[in-house]
Design goal:
It is built from 9 helices and 9 strands. It is an alpha/beta fold and about 280 residues long.
């Protein structure tokens, strides 16, 4: 059963789900004032952060590129078909961040406004598919009760929590490698205390020019062999754009392969449904 998808242009959010009287969740204060955005909503108490479990939870995804949107939608159709998916696209997010030399306060506020838009529209879970804006998630978690995920966070946590002693990270664009390495290392103290782990990275820029998943997997496998990562216990795809090659790479290397979109869909599924399905660690559906 395919996930229901809703592509909604800003600024009109979908109608909120109808809830019995007395069961509404607290909403953040909206911004106001003619001179610009008002103060952000006040952080919610911990006791108000438990997500509401519903048969078809509304999951919002904020995208910076259409390709990331397509891959995330396919992952939710495969891993979390019960979800009603709401897609929000701002295709200037990456270009504006690149032109500014990184995230500025204005860009952070812009992303928070997009998040607020989805929360006011009734989203019960949210995934940011753009890794460049991951740091904004930490602020969002203090402001809204619904679970908010960074693009690859679920994949990194699954890998570190698993039995893997040697983890390989593979990418097709140079900036993705240090970004993934930094996130993994930041999670180690909380997710894997006292358990040593070796992280190997591999880069294949040739894979970025390919469109065929089998050819992409071939380039990635070659890069893994060249970097000494072919014998890792698990391979992590550092970009959503590499997700179509996941199963092909697993078949070529004989190693489990995790992708960020699939892991995020499974984590939100487990958080928002009463009976989560068993977690998957390999590269085969």
């Amino acid at each position: 059963m395919a996930a229901r998808q809703r592509n909604t242009p800003l600024p009109s959010p979908p109608p909120r789900p109808v809830r019995p009287a007395g069961e509404g969740r607290p909403r953040p204060r909206t911004r106001s004032g003619r001179g610009g955005p008002g103060p952000l909503p006040a952080p919610l108490p911990e006791k108000e952060r438990t997500p509401v479990i519903e048969p078809r939870p509304l999951v919002a995804m904020i995208h910076a590129v259409p390709a990331g949107a397509r891959i995330a939608q396919e992952a939710f159709a495969r891993e979390f078909p019960q979800a009603t998916v709401w897609n929000v696209l701002d295709d200037r997010l990456l270009d504006d961040a690149r032109d500014a030399g990184g995230l500025t306060d204005a860009l952070r506020r812009r992303m928070l406004r997009l998040i607020e838009h989805t929360m006011d529209g009734g989203a019960q879970g949210l995934l940011l598919t753009c890794s460049s804006y991951g740091e904004v998630v930490d602020t969002a978690r203090a402001l809204w009760p619904a679970p908010v995920l960074k693009s690859d966070e679920a994949m990194f946590k699954a890998a570190l929590a698993g039995p893997y002693e040697r983890i390989a990270v593979v990418a097709s664009t140079p900036p993705a490698v240090p970004a993934a390495l930094a996130q993994l290392e930041a999670l180690i103290p909380a997710v894997r205390p006292g358990r040593p782990v070796e992280i190997v990275t591999a880069l294949s820029e040739a894979a970025a020019a390919e469109r065929d998943p089998t050819a992409i997997a071939g380039h990635l496998a070659e890069a893994l062999r060249a970097s000494g990562g072919a014998d890792a216990d698990v391979v992590l795809l550092a970009q959503y754009s590499l997700s179509p090659a996941r199963d092909h790479l697993a078949a070529q290397t004989g190693v489990p392969v995790l992708d960020g979109a699939g892991a995020a869909a499974r984590e939100l599924r487990d958080l928002l449904t009463a009976t989560p399905a068993p977690a998957r660690t390999g590269g085969t559906p």
